[in-house]
Amino acid sequence: MTGAPRARAAGPLLLGVRHHGPGSARAVRAALEACAPRVVLIEGPPEADTIVRLAAEKDMRPPVALLAHAADDPGRAGFWPLAGFSPEWAAIQWALAHEVPVRFIDLPAANSLAMSAKQTPAAAPAPAGPLEPAAPLEPVDPGDQAAPGAGSAERLRVDPLSVLAETAGYDDPERWWEDVIEHRGTGGAGAFTAVAEAMEALRAEYGHGGHEDDAVREAHMRLRLREARREFGDEVAVVCGAWHVPALGERTTATADRKLLKGLPKVKAEISWVPWTHRRLARHSGYGAGITSPGWYDHLFHAPDRPVERWLTKVAGLLRAEDFAVSSAHVIEAVRLAETLAAMRGRPLAGLAETLDAVRAVMCEGSDVPMALVWDRLVVGDVLGEVPESAPAAPLQRDLTRTQRSLRLKPEALERELELDLRKETDAGRSRLLHRLRLLGVDWGSPAVSRGSTGTFRETWRLRWEPELSVRIAEAGVWGTTVLSAATAKAETEARSAKGLAEVTELAERCLLGALSGALPVVMRSLADRAALDADVGHLAQALPALVRSVRYGDVRGTDTAALGEVAVGLAERILVGLPPACVGLDADGAAEMRGHMEAVHRAIGLLSESESEPETGIQPEAGTGTEPETWPAAEAQPQPRAAGSGAAGGLRGRWAAMLRSLAGRDGTPATPGLIRGRAARLLLDDARLAEDEAARLMGLALSPGTEPPEAASWIEGFIGGGAGGGMLLVHDERLLGLVDRWLISVPAEAFTDVLPLLRRTFSAYDTGVRRTLGELVRRGPAAEGHSGGQGAPAAPGFGPGLDPHRAAAVVPTVRLLLGLDPDPHGNDTMEAAR
């Protein structure tokens, strides 16, 4: 495409291109060099005329995008992405380098944004991806075409690229485009004319092709073209989607075009440059003019020569960096295979399909795992563009940029994990920034589970910058001009409008994490008001964990959380009083929900007691030990309320244990569900506040013949269910396993079907190894009382009777080696194993 084709003998230079096509970009650059027009017109929003010169700044690195949004509704926005291999970007760079004016001629963003807001959901652009008002060469995928004769919203939408490829005998439009354009250098002299003729034939056949708004857009383009010709004559170059070339060459009157534009809706729009990514250029992102392989196209455009060899060298470098064994010999063989495949398939050069087939066969040995890495990192790519500081931006965006720079936290398109140590000032600042942005709805980072330390001074984040976050920042600008002021204002508003106690406690936690001290007084007043009015134990139980976490985080971050601690202790006291009666008479679903609340409160009270430096008393006197009666009178066990305040948490953990005792020993009518009683006993056992003998006694009572089988199965689920170590408890305590086994044998046949789902749900949560061990223990049966092993040692619970010293001795040398001990010089491994 080296010639300078004109629509007529004397007229403007119409360059019909494919958006984001490197072949089109090379051809446009060559055509502009040959013709040297006095002005360049580009398909895009005219509002960008004032900021287009920023594209020449050295800090402007594509991919970037023009972002236009409604001034009064930043969420109503549109993007016009430009990559380094986009024909429009090539035209802009040529014009700025030669000091030629650049003007955008598409429908103004003020109109297109207003029109998109009035479209019906069926006709509006897909919200999953960025809005791209400029009509792409391939408007939709062929699979999205509606049947002819349908309503206006469902009319046939034509994909010109697919139609031309099918006409040429290709089943893949991308492969056809590569063969016709990308693999032929800058193309022949008449390539632009040929493309224009093909589009004219398609429009004669399909009309507007299902794009009814194109008539309005093309009318505006023609008006702008007339203005340029009046000012510069016919020395005008137009770079637009090839689909629009026939319309720009039509003989129409200015009056007719203005009539089409009359009465269009309009909003006040603001426009700026924002960074973009190759990933968002891909078609799977929802972008209408997207391409399948932006990273590959970027390589084709910038490679000075031998693109296949250079590409496969990149692939080898990537795989070697990921510890795959790839050598230069692999690269040589992959190049040969790609060229051979291209010759066999009748292609002028090896394309993406041939190179990927060669990579799969030679470098990846047929595996899909490294191929997925190559596709994600190289074929699509993770490049993130950059925009100069002089570009117009909202105050909130500028403050965020300054903060990112001061914290050395650079946005990146590739997802990465960030480990933070909150004891370091920089890491603490990064944590505060990420939490404030999350509160504002800018989800640049999401919390992740740390692989290392689980201390509260550690945080792990997954970071990934998406272009759409620029819109979220613009939307958040209504709250303030800095990240701190905006997050504070939004937190105060949410605190006043929150409907539930749990919402306010979660908000208080987020305020502490983001160090929003200015919002805390408002949040605390709202929290105190709702806590005083809410009498639902479930709501209180939902609110307490977040509140206790806030107290803990405050300790780590140096925040004064005395007021939060008082509220937390007050909530805990109210739960202590209200939980026992709330557990009476619950059905199965209600009991399961209450069990979850009880577990969450148990963990929260443990944390709250630690944060208040509660002295631990160790194991409490248990029934049957001689220090207290064997039964627990409900009157003694019922917790007594205490006033919230300093030191109120001192005995909180002990009173919570007393409340659990009252639940575990409850029975009668109406009874507390077995699920609740079993879980209460288990929590006490795990905290070493319930002796093993007493736990066995409670299980014996729960599984006695007088208990209905479904209720007994429910108790078992509460005590050993949930996968939280219940299986190992049975493995290491054969008394409990024997009780369960004997009870299960005694269940009548008519009741067995009712209890089977509960038991299946309980035991299915165990690990495979635990289930196998339990099965072996049940099959073996209880160990004989007083049986002696080979060396006179009694049988250990959970193991076979006796000990085989010779088998045990076989592992002793390995164990000594692992422990760093010298081999036994006397060879007494057998005796040592027996001991």
Give a nutshell description of this structure.
The protein is built from 36 helices and ten strands.
Break the fold down into its secondary structure elements and pairings.
Blueprint: E1 13-17, H1 22-35, E2 39-42, E3 64-70, E4 73-82, H2 87-97, E5 102-104, H3 109-118, H4 160-167, H5 173-180, H6 191-206, H7 214-232, E6 236-241, H8 245-248, H9 254-261, E7 269-275, H10 278-281, H11 294-302, H12 307-321, H13 328-344, H14 352-363, H15 368-381, H16 395-406, E8 416-421, H17 425-439, E9 445-448, E10 458-463, H18 469-476, H19 483-497, H20 501-513, H21 520-533, H22 537-557, H23 562-582, H24 588-611, H25 634-637, H26 652-664, H27 674-686, H28 692-702, H29 709-720, H30 726-732, H31 734-746, H32 749-764, H33 768-780, H34 805-809, H35 812-818, H36 829-834
Parallel strand pairs: 1-6, 2-5, 2-6
Antiparallel strand pairs: 3-4, 3-7, 8-10, 9-10
Helix pairs in contact: 1-2, 1-11, 4-5, 7-9, 11-15, 12-13, 12-15, 13-14, 17-19, 19-20, 19-21, 20-21, 20-22, 21-23, 22-23, 22-24, 23-24, 23-26, 24-27, 26-27, 27-28, 27-29, 29-32, 30-31, 30-33
Radius of gyration: 36 Å
**Which segments are poorly predicted (pLDDT under 50) over 5 or more consecutive residues?**
1-9, 120-155, 613-650, 784-798
Q: Please tell me the overall pLDDT.
A: 78
Distance between the termini: 88 Å
Output the number of helix runs. Answer: 36
